[in-house]
Write a structure and sequence with these properties.
Low-confidence stretches: 177-181
Strand content: under 5%
Radius of gyration: 26 Å
Mean pLDDT: 82
């Protein structure tokens, strides 16, 4: 950039930073107000128990619009002079993208914690409750796969783990089965994992659980699926 352009470019970047912050607030807070008005007017109708919108939660969501590497990478991906097709105002776009990321991460990122404490917002535990429900329902689907199977001692451990998950909703553990029956157990575990994945997708489709609980439970099922892969099981390594 030329020295004479810095003042104009910095002013432009500051204006865009302000617009990024204000547009998010102007977009979200009216939506938050309409949702709260509908609850007062027609009552609460949610597909499952969940955290209801408040002024405080609206402010937090409005203030939490951090940008990151994707914003800068998109700006840097614009063609430059070296490619022979320079994008108009590429330099100012890169500067503006960097300023937006810096401002949102530093200003909003450092003040989000104090804002949460000032508003006295607390987790209502809805995601954890949905996680326990998802673990129990997916474990039941796995047990249905195990029903009627001729199970060996190691496979009985797998069954006991799923039964324990139903009782407590605890995180699943990785089962490592020794001995010659290991391949049979791995195949059975893959079938159980497939049934769990289908049950989890059904819970989400019926809106019994939300996205946060779905992705957390999906990660646990992914880990269980990995333990059934003979290529990475430590007891089969040579």
């Amino acid at each position: 950039m030329q020295d004479a352009d810095w003042r104009t470019n910095i002013f432009f970047a500051i204006a865009v930073c302000a617009a990024v912050m204000l547009v998010r607030i102007v977009w979200w807070m009216p939506y938050n107000a309409i949702a709260r008005w509908k609850m007062r007017r027609f009552g609460v109708r949610t597909p499952r128990p969940m955290l209801l919108p408040t002024v405080g939660s609206g402010l937090v969501i409005s203030w939490a619009g951090m940008r990151g590497i994707v914003t800068v990478a998109t700006a840097l991906a614009l063609p430059d002079v070296a490619s022979g097709t320079a994008f108009p105002y590429r330099d100012i776009i890169i500067l503006t993208a960097f300023c937006v990321v810096l401002r949102t991460l530093v200003v909003q990122g450092l003040t989000l914690g104090p804002l949460l404490r000032r508003l006295d917002l607390h987790d209502d535990g809805s995601v954890e409750r949905e996680m326990k429900l998802a673990r129990a329902e997916t474990a039941r689907s796995a047990l249905r796969v195990l029903d009627g199977e001729s199970l060996q001692d190691a496979a009985q451990i797998l069954r006991r783990d799923y039964e324990a998950r139903i009782r407590s909703g605890e995180r699943p553990v990785s089962i490592q089965a020794p001995g010659p029956e290991d391949s049979n157990l791995a195949a059975l575990q893959r079938r159980a994992v497939s049934a769990q994945r289908q049950a989890l997708m059904d819970l989400r489709a019926r809106r019994v659980i939300g996205d946060d609980a779905f992705h957390a439970a999906e990660e646990e099922i992914d880990l269980l699926e990995l333990t059934a892969d003979a290529r990475i099981r430590p007891d089969t390594a040579t």
